[in-house]
Design a protein that fits this description.
Blueprint lengths: L5 E4 L7 H8 L8 H9 L5 H8 L14 H16 L2 E5 L4 H14 L9 E4 L12 H9 L2 E6 L7 H9 L3 E5 L13 E3 L15 H15 L12 H10 L7 H17 L9 H9 L7 H19 L4 H7 L3 H33 L10 E5 L7 H12 L3 E5 L41 E7 L6 H6 L7 E4 L3 E7 L3 H16 L7 E4 L1 E3 L6 H7 L14 E17 L6 E11 L7 E6 L11 E10 L4 E11 L4 E2 L6 E4 L6 H11 L5 E4 L6 H17 L8 E4 L9 H18 L2 E3 H8 L3 H13 L2 E6 L2 E6 L11 H22 L2 H9 L4
Parallel strand pairs: 1-12, 2-3, 2-4, 4-5, 5-6, 7-8, 13-14, 16-18, 20-22, 21-22
Antiparallel strand pairs: 8-9, 9-11, 10-11, 14-15, 14-17, 15-16, 17-18, 19-20, 23-25, 24-25
Helix pairs in contact: 1-2, 4-8, 5-8, 5-9, 5-13, 8-9, 9-10, 9-12, 11-14, 12-14, 13-14, 14-15, 21-24, 23-24
Length: 822
């Protein structure tokens, strides 16, 4: 089961009145206060920034030649190919960013080179070839007479393959946005925004946007050649940008704003008059209109990605996005929709199996979740891993140990109507060839991260155990020998645990604004729409609604588009609070109505407009009972949570002052294991059962503070210093005095005393006192000594456990209290 989420509220700083008035000019129907607060929180704090952010016409986009000499080299090499009538191949990728990037180059370069004769494209098979260039594909293009390959959304680190292509007489132009090679590869040009300063307005471009910039450069270099305007490509750019979940700032935001407008305008045309009938049909199938960023992230993006996940070969998606043949596009759109239905079915099955395996893990001692199964289809592992990571707050790696297929190694995709989607940042993994029947069995899979944990670095540090790997901090793909999985699991957990120290990984959700049901509606929606398109670095505003309740809730099974198979669940409801007599509609994807709390609660939601139902509604993100500081279950003590509160000392005083006999037990010392806490729970229940009536039920107050531990090395030096002092002064000390002075548990102190003995100290027990004598040794401050190392490890483990119990959800404690097993 997922752990209880930790809720946080974004730090609020009231924006000045002049700024609120400036925002209000863009949203005259509302006060502008909520949008102003969000802009201010997100670092937009002056007129110029605000205007450029909201109004794309006030933004000055960067020239494609901001890429410098590399763009000039690429433009010159393409002109050379034109003059020599060379055959050019576009080498794309199979995810939404790669497919749209290929489509942009196909349409864009197609203005200068004749399609299908002088210009062709190649999309690797996800299940056989994986990401990036490969020699087999290069051989294929060489046989067709290609002299130039233009990559998109891939290729930066394919040094060996680029050299191989050069040996065959093929030049390569790389357009990409992924990891840079250590040295410039032997290419005709490499256009990658990661070569630019991080603050540059082009730095966050995705693969499709980099491809667009190359076409833009050619439009400027060879004016009056193209027959169609460059802007016709912007709808595809918007789809790739938003589906790839890159940070929508600078030119990314500008291009996405323009592209969404083009997308919506084309969809509003009669079906027979659309420039992109395939895109229009996909929008119809997912009941979207193309005017919302979520129409891409939860609609178009997952459908494009589903094709390669299910079929491997996604080449026809380029035809789907670029062909003007409406009949053919309708056929391809329906094949795409069927692939997405199949993807959802497979994902649902794998999710259920992963959930079962998770019940066998102790998440309190697990830093990185690593699970394997021989039956899991590799194509959906990244999506499921992303969901597990979000639900548990832990990096998650899912591995398929089946014998066939290549490394899934995908990047993050957008979600769909039935899920929240994968929040990776678009992994670019190294290609992996299928296993031969005689080769050792390999496990292949995907990894997803959360909580700012650099998962790629974690995986990279275990390279000696891996066959191949690649990716980004939030998304990675990998393969390894099946026999190495236990070693890999132990090593990557130990590595992250050491780097985290006492930090506890917890699933978190952050609210941006606190408001009431009365605030919801069209005015607020239009005000918050000023921030769109939202994405990485500018997330959809999360709204906290407190002390509310749900009415008229009902759920139903969602079927695929032909009504044949149940795919997922959704719950619809009305939300109400004391601010209004009216209710407001909402929806909760993937949940049953019985999961909604009974009575008053708090929730975090997003405000949206449902194009299909033509209504404003909230999309529920998280919900919990309002009065969550005290939880009670049958046959368990009433537990009051006073941990980590500034007012806890006063609360404890009041609790003690107002208590009657047997009414409250207060735990102020943070436990280090469940047995310590179970002992208090047993004592509490024993007292409760000895009294009559619920009014006299024993109350247990957990009131320990969040630990502020010293470094383990310093604790050891303190223990040694005390031992030396006691030896020098011939004083005695009690065990309790030592524990209070050093701040460790009794069990860890025993490890420390053993270490002192191993290093030349004599420790004797006299009645209740300890007598310590020191025989000088140089090893006492040697942290590498095995005895000292054991003590330091014990301290670190204790600190880890204290941190866990400082933050463990109250619901977990109640579950333990309700268990018959203690």
């Amino acid at each position: 089961m997922p752990e209880q989420q930790q809720w946080t509220i974004a730090a609020t700083e009231q924006p000045p009145q002049w700024f609120i008035e400036a925002v209000k000019q863009h949203t005259p129907a509302s006060s502008g206060i909520y949008a102003a607060q969000l802009f201010w929180q997100r670092g937009i704090k002056d007129h110029q920034q605000l205007t450029a952010f909201i109004n794309y016409k006030a933004y000055q986009p960067a020239s494609p030649f901001e890429f410098g000499q590399e763009m000039h080299l690429a433009s010159a090499r393409l002109q050379q190919a034109d003059n020599a009538r060379e055959k050019i191949a576009i080498w794309g990728d199979f995810d939404a960013d790669g497919i749209t990037a290929t489509s942009v180059l196909w349409d864009g370069l197609g203005q200068f080179f004749k399609q299908n004769t002088q210009l062709i494209y190649y999309i690797p098979n996800r299940l056989k070839e994986s990401h990036g260039l490969n020699n087999q594909g290069i051989d294929n293009l060489a046989k067709q007479g290609c002299k130039l390959i233009v990559t998109c959304d891939t290729g930066s680190t394919n040094i060996e393959e680029i050299i191989y292509a050069k040996q065959l007489g093929i030049n390569v132009i790389v357009t990409d946005h992924h990891t840079l090679p250590a040295e410039r590869p032997p290419v005709a040009a490499i256009i990658n925004p990661r070569y630019l300063p991080r603050e540059h307005q082009l730095f966050h471009l995705s693969g499709v946007a980099v491809a667009y910039k190359l076409v833009e450069a050619l439009y400027q270099t060879l004016p009056n050649v193209a027959k169609h305007p460059l802007e016709d490509l912007l709808d595809l750019v918007a789809v790739g940008l938003i589906a790839d979940l890159v940070q929508l700032s600078g030119d990314c935001r500008y291009l996405a704003q323009l592209g969404i407008q083009r997308l919506q305008a084309d969809f509003q045309q009669p079906a027979a008059a659309r420039r992109r009938p395939g895109v229009g049909r996909l929008l119809e199938l997912c009941q979207k209109s193309g005017d919302r960023p979520t129409d891409i992230s939860f609609g178009l993006g997952p459908r494009i990605n589903a094709v390669s996940r299910i079929q491997g070969d996604a080449s026809f998606c380029v035809e789907l996005l670029t062909s003007r043949d409406a009949k053919r596009c309708n056929e391809l759109a329906e094949v795409t929709e069927l692939a997405n239905a199949r993807r959802k079915s497979l994902q649902k099955d794998v999710q259920a199996q992963v959930a079962q395996k998770l019940t066998q893990l102790d998440l309190s001692t697990t830093s990185v979740i690593v699970l394997e199964d021989a039956q899991w289809p590799a194509g959906v592992l990244g999506l499921v891993a992303g969901q597990v990571a979000q639900e548990t707050g832990r990096p998650t790696i899912l591995l398929s140990t089946e014998k066939v297929g290549g490394d899934e190694g995908d990047g993050g995709d957008g979600g769909d109507e039935g899920d929240r989607g994968d929040r990776g940042d678009g992994g670019d993994q190294e290609g992996i060839s299928p296993s031969s029947p005689s080769s050792p069995p390999l496990a292949r899979g995907s990894a997803r991260s959360v909580n700012s944990v650099d998962l790629y670095q974690l995986v990279k540090d275990q390279a000696h155990l891996l066959h191949r790997f690649g990716g980004h901090p939030f998304a990675a793909g990998l393969s390894l020998l099946v026999e190495n999985i236990p070693l890999f699991t132990a090593a990557i957990n130990q590595q992250l645990r050491q780097s985290l120290g006492t930090t506890t990984l917890t699933p978190t959700v952050q609210a941006d604004l606190t408001l009431t049901v009365a605030d919801l509606g069209k005015e607020l929606f239009l005000e918050l729409k000023l921030l769109e398109p939202c994405g990485m670095g500018n997330p959809v505003p999360k709204l906290l609604i407190q002390n509310c309740w749900f009415e008229n809730s009902w759920h139903r099974n969602q079927q695929d588009w032909q009504g044949k198979k149940v795919q997922y669940i959704k719950t619809e409801f009305d939300i109400r609070d004391d601010s209004s007599r009216s209710v407001f509609p909402g929806i909760w994807w993937g949940h049953y109505k019985d999961e909604l709390p009974i009575g008053r609660c708090d929730c975090i939601a997003e405000l949206d407009y449902n194009t299909f139902k033509k209504r404003y509604e909230i999309r529920l993100i998280a919900v919990r009972p309002s009065v969550n500081s005290t939880l009670n279950t049958r046959n368990s003590p009433l537990i009051l949570d006073l941990r980590n509160q500034e007012h806890s000392a006063r609360a404890k005083q009041q609790l003690s002052a107002n208590s009657t006999q047997h009414s409250a037990l207060i735990i102020e010392d943070c436990p280090t294991n469940w047995d310590d806490l179970r002992a208090w729970l047993r004592r509490c229940l024993t007292i409760s059962r000895s009294t009559s009536g619920l009014d006299n039920q024993q109350q247990l107050a957990i009131a320990w503070s969040k630990p502020n531990p010293q470094p383990p090395n310093q604790i050891w030096l303190t223990l040694v210093g005390i031992a030396k002092y006691l030896s020098r002064t011939n004083q005695l000390v009690t065990r309790v005095q030592l524990l209070e002075k050093i701040g460790i548990s009794d069990q860890t102190l025993l490890v420390g005393i053993k270490a002192l003995k191993d290093l030349g100290f004599t420790v004797k027990l006299q009645d209740r006192y300890l007598q310590i004598t020191w025989h000088p040794s140089d090893n006492a401050e040697n942290f590498a000594d095995p005895a000292v190392a054991r003590f330091l490890a014990a301290v670190r483990e204790e600190q880890f456990q204290r941190q866990y119990f400082a933050e463990v959800p109250l619901s977990t404690i109640v579950a333990i209290a309700s268990s018959d097993n203690y």
